[in-house]
Amino acid sequence: MGRKTNPIILRVGNVIRSWDGKWFSDRRVKYRANLLADLSIRKYFAKTHRTTSISRIEIERNQQETVLTIHTSRPAMVIGRGGTGIEKIQKDLRRKLKIRRGGLRINVQEVRNPDTDAVAVATQVVEQLERRFPFRRVLKQSVSRARQAGALGVRVLVSGRLNGAEIARREWLGEGSVPLHTFRADISYANRVAHTTYGTIGVKVWINRGELKMGEEEEIEVKGGPAKKAPYRTSLAKAAKASAKIKAPRGDNQYVTAKKS
User: What CA–CA distances, in Å, run from 61 to 40, 65, 78, 100?
Assistant: First the structure.
């Protein structure tokens, strides 16, 4: 099942990845309108920003405004000179979705390590294939850069008339471990299409960025109350944090401190 399904879909909603659309509607008509608006937004970016390596678009809605958070490895291409790119996006989406002025806010976040982001890697592979680079060299360079950037495993697959061959075929190159059946594994996945003079070439990229583990139950000390047990979720990158404070379920001035054992 892990090899037949988009690995991102299998991991949505657990400790690894949250939903891209964050809103709620208790009416069927409003829900349908919001869902169609989400699809229109994603189609707009897929059509107008094909080369900007947008890896994720988060859409949040409240009663006052719609907030878009764009994750990309090329933020300058999205923002534009002096913010002209953002202004054009806001103008187009307001006209397309009939949103009032001030009802749309756009945030741009840079992907810090693009060599371990599947969308950025797939975009680079597509650009090089369209410029007629030898596909084997493109695959080797992509896998090598991802491994040097800290990826635990990489797999890149291309299919089509490779190097102009008359018969289409599939070629792939992989290195390391890419456990698609391990749900705690952080798998970055992307698929793109390269348009060449010989036809289209499909590109798929899987990158294993490590595992997010569910820690053991830990002691939670509540001021003015007995110690309690609670599940503690953590990632490998955040495991070094010793404590975190959250509001206690009772009392006005009580706080809960989760201490690492």
Answer: 15, 6, 22, 14
pLDDT digits (tens, 9 = 90+) for 32-85: 999 999 999 999 999 998 888 899 999 999 888 899 999 999 999 999 888 899
Tell me yes or no: is domain 114-211 CATH 3.30.420.10. no
Q: Show Cβ contacts of residue 49 under 8 Å, excluding neighbours closer than 6 positions.
A: 77, 78
Distance CA 53, CA 38 (A): 19
CATH class (in words) of the domain with range 7-110: alpha beta
Query: Rounded CA gap, 116 and 145, in Å?
Result: 8
SS3 41: helix
Instruction: Extract long-range pairs of 83-90: CB within 8 Å, 24+ residues apart.
Output: none
Residues in CB range of 123: below 8 A, 6 or more apart: 51, 53, 192
Q: Is 21 helix (H, G, I), strand (E, B) or coil?
A: strand
Q: Which of 118, 114, 129 is nearest to 75 (CA)?
A: 114
Are 109 and 70 spatial neighbours (Cβ–Cβ below 8 Å)? yes
- Could you give the angle at the alpha carbon of 67 between the alpha carbons of 66 and 72, nearest 5°? 140
Take residue 63 and report the two structure tokens written for it. Answer: 């009663």
**pLDDT tens, position by position, 226-260:** 444 433 334 434 433 433 333 334 444 333 334 44
Domain ranges for the chain: 7-110, 114-211, 218-259
